[in-house]
Design a protein that fits this description.
mainly alpha
């Protein structure tokens, strides 16, 4: 059973919860609205590629072996668009 409007965030506790949920729900699908939104809840700057890359690496290496992760992203590098980390 998937959590409703769950925000795992970038904090260690949230990552552990997501990892445990992924192990308990193999084959499930996780939709993430944006790394910016998740990282804002964890108190990190969304404009820093280092933090974004670290979180995406965590998803790829720790979560994706169990479940599918769909990450909805936008290109914040184009003129007249919201900015943010390009990772």
């Amino acid at each position: 059973m998937a959590p409703e409007r769950w925000m795992p965030g970038v904090l260690l506790r949230g990552r552990i919860e997501l990892f445990e949920w992924a192990q308990d729900n193999p084959g499930a699908c996780v939709f993430i609205g944006s790394v910016k939104t998740i990282r804002a809840k964890g108190g990190f700057s969304y404009a820093d590629n280092e933090h974004a890359a670290a979180f995406l690496t965590f998803l790829k290496e720790a979560i994706c072996p169990f479940v599918t992760v769909v990450h909805l992203a936008h290109d914040g590098t184009k003129a007249h668009r919201a900015g943010g980390a390009a990772a």
